[in-house]
Amino acid sequence: MKSFSCTCGNTTFFENTQCVACGHELGWCPACRNIVPLQPSPDGTFQCGFSECGAVLRKCHNYAVEQVCNRCIIANGGGGELCDCCRFNETIPDLSVPGNRAMWHRLESATRRLLYTLDILNLPYGTEEDGVSPPLVFDFKADLAAQKRWWWQMGKEERVYTGHADGRITINIREADPVEREKSRQHFEEAHRTIIGHFRHEIAHYYWQMLVEKQCEDAFVAVFGNHADPTYAQAQERYYRDGPLPDWNRRCVSAYASMHPWEDFAETFATYLDIVSVLHTARSMDLSDECDPLNAELTVMVTSYAKLGVVLNEMNRAMGLVDLVPEILVPPVVAKLQFIHDLVRSAGQNGPLPDGKNA
Predict the structure, then answer these.
(1) In Å, what is the CA distance from 182 to each residue of 190, 325, 345?
(2) Is the pTM of this model over 0.85?
(3) Which residues of 280-300 are buried (b: 16+ CB within 10 A; e: fewer)?
(4) Could you point out which of 35, 56, 103, 351 has its C-alpha 20 to 30 Å from the C-alpha of 296?
(5) pLDDT tens per residue, range 196-224
(6) Is-contact 93 173, C-beta < 8 A?
(7) Under a CB-based contact definition with an 8 Å cutoff, are residues 277 and 283 in contact?
């Protein structure tokens, strides 16, 4: 992620709706893809304040009315009242419940960051109206049994209301409650537990169905193992009965990844998106210019990520925070990341799918 600039010269950021220096209202312009000052017009529209753009804009409904978004729509572009991110929402939280709007706001912020990364990687996604299969849909739901806390007994990424099915990504809004999320992180002994992490994991299942299933499954099996034997249900039952495989850290990026090849793929794909996001941010912020994750080879990305991780982890430790880069990228994990890397590059460039020969 990069930073942006207000007309007053102040630095602004991806989630901003107002410049803290001059008070100017800000929004995301889909024409120039920047956070820009919004110049109001008498007819209720806005002009993009980026001098090289000047597009005529109107606010997304969830910005103008609900205050959970910061994106705009091309005023004369047709379509509905929702921006290019909010249009994927089919279910939103019950806003009559205190606290739900704040949690929805956090979920929307994570959604926008997820889609930003997918866009810079040129990965395909879309709605049914776009002709994309499977169509991407987001459901943000509350846990009706929260008072019993029985959802804690489920495993990572699989608790009530959280998961993926045929393009539909459902997130339990409790993941947007920092207190409950930290309790869960401790309960499941996770190095990280973040909203964006859930989105990155679940979008991986979406891309398995879109890019791997019935297309390069043999190559997938060569790298991740046979997803048909044992079945997912059998693997899940074993995992929750016996726990992760004892040697999971020698071949998987996380304990949960050792449950089944589908979860190994999802955890590895999520880690790949972590790597791209961190390296892209570091390059955009002039913290490091060693690696452009949009063009570099996987080995260069891994080396740069590990090098940055040493620095960033020490910074976090200096502030008493958890490590930013907790993963140990052992050779078997790097081989799986290579499969993901080849898959992403092929999808982004409409090239051949991975053949598994790099495994």
Answers:
(1) 10, 17, 35
(2) yes
(3) bbbbeeeeeeebebeebebee
(4) 35
(5) 998 999 999 999 999 999 999 999 999 99
(6) yes
(7) no
Coil/strand/helix, residue 163: strand
pLDDT surpassing 60 at residue 156: no
> How far, in Å, CA of 136 to CA of 113, rounded?
16
User: CA 250, 197, 123, 93 torsion: positive or negative?
Assistant: positive
Give the strand pairing for 163-165 and 168-172: antiparallel
Distance CA 84, CA 138 (A): 13
* Cα R_g (the chain), whole angstroms: 21
Contact by Cβ (8 Å): 139, 171 = yes
Residues 6+ apart with CB under 8 A from 160: 143, 145, 150, 151, 154, 172
CA distance linking residue 170 with residue 153, whole number of Å:
18
Other Cβ atoms less than 10 A from the Cβ of 92: the count is: 20
Report phi then psi at 191, rounded to 5: -65, -40
Q: Which of 258, 261, 249, 264 is nearest to 327 (CA)?
A: 249
Instruction: Locate 70 and state its tokens.
Output: 């910061």
Whether 270 contacts 197, CB under 8 Å: yes
What does the alpha-carbon distance between residue 160 and residue 34 come to, in Å, rounded to a whole number? 36
